[in-house]
Amino acid sequence: MFAWEQRKLNEFLKTSKLKNENNKFTKKDVLSVSGDYGIVNQIKFKGRSFAGTSVQKYRIVNTNDVVYTKSPLKNNPYGIIKANKGKPGIVSTLYAVYKTNEKVNASFVEYYFENDYRLNTYLKPLVNKGAKNDMKVSDDNALIGNVIFPLEYSEQIKIVKFLNRFDSLITLHQRKPKCISKLT
Description:
- This protein has 184 residues and is an alpha+beta fold.
- The chain is built from 4 helices and 12 strands; from the N terminus they run ββββαβββββααβββα.
- It has helices at residues 42-46, 106-112, 116-123, 153-175; strands at residues 4-8, 13-15, 31-34, 38-41, 59-61, 66-69, 80-83, 89-91, 95-100, 128-129, 135-136, 146-150.
């Protein structure tokens, strides 16, 4: 087992400044962040794109980038943090996009922030809520909080693999047909 240490999140993630300036991506490539499903294509998930007339200023999200949505959700009043495990795409400028460095696995970051209490405790001191319930925090300032991560990348991978298997077992169990017994 490897050591876990408290560090600033900005030691693991760096704010991405990549924008869709050359229009490589279109409205068909707009992504959303879902609390239950992670980062998803808007059209496939919601049936349509909610993008504005131009997506030129939208931020590019590559596979294994980490995205912070500053939109409050029921259990997450300061937003959520997810990793892009799918295809590259773009998100509105309301989202923060981060690149991982060689010290951290994007899926590990997502699992770390899966716990609502941990996520909310991390974000609360960093975020000021505006009058319209919007989040007032810069992309860089969202990274200045403390996290406790294993410093060995291999340890993070082991944890991610274990949790992926665990999630798969839960999904399989939920799909099992329930036996209905007849009273005679």
